[in-house]
Design a protein that fits this description.
single chain; 137 residues; mainly beta; 6-stranded antiparallel β-barrel; two-stranded antiparallel ribbon; 45% strand; globular; disordered N terminus
Amino acid sequence: MEALAEVRLNANRMVRSGDGSGRRSPRLSIRLAGALKGRQPRDVQLLDLSATGCLARAPAPLDTGAIFDLEMQLLAVPWSAKVRVTSCALDGATTPQDTSRYLVGLEFLGLPAQEAEVLRRFLADEQRRRSADPPAH
């Protein structure tokens, strides 16, 4: 239906607006520890994850366009990817006492086949696990 302004899919938080714009792949809400390696390494917490990128909470602002190596654990094995900062903003849900106060959008750059497959399996396994869990009341 063209009149539909947006469609929300499942718990993936995938949003597509009626004009055809939107995310390239579904996002999965997650809480994973990670690290951005570069000139100024920093620990981050991943808040959502997709096949094309992720959203992380970081302790300091990052420049849009900056490139880092993201490292984390997926399927109980070390996983890494080259990422580019696509956005960075102060998280309005945090307080001055919070150590990580910035929301950072990260885009995966040229994932090697092995890393892409591990990520795909992780996302599929997590989605299956969540759909099998009984709803919370």
